[in-house]
Design brief:
4 helices
Amino acid sequence: MPQIIETDAHQVHAWLEENGAILVDVREDNELQQARFPSEVVHLPLSRFDPNAVPADSDKRIVFVCAQGIRSFQAGQYMLDQGFLGEAYNLTEGIAGWHRAGLPLELG
């Protein structure tokens, strides 16, 4: 079975700059009030996650994100295990790692 690929914030940022990735944010609605990615994101909270809403037909990398990288790992691995995706990426350390890397965020 395919395994989700752990990817750091700088690599994901580079992919986004090249328009080569789609972020799938599985954080809950209230978490978005604290911090958001400045790029376009598919928001699918894990509590009501719909695998059919993930853009599986895209030629871009699908990168799952959450606060710390745990829920996003679970969502991405589920997508692989169920055959919805052939390849998926997890943002290691989630949005917290993105923030520690000094990458742009919308806060508040």
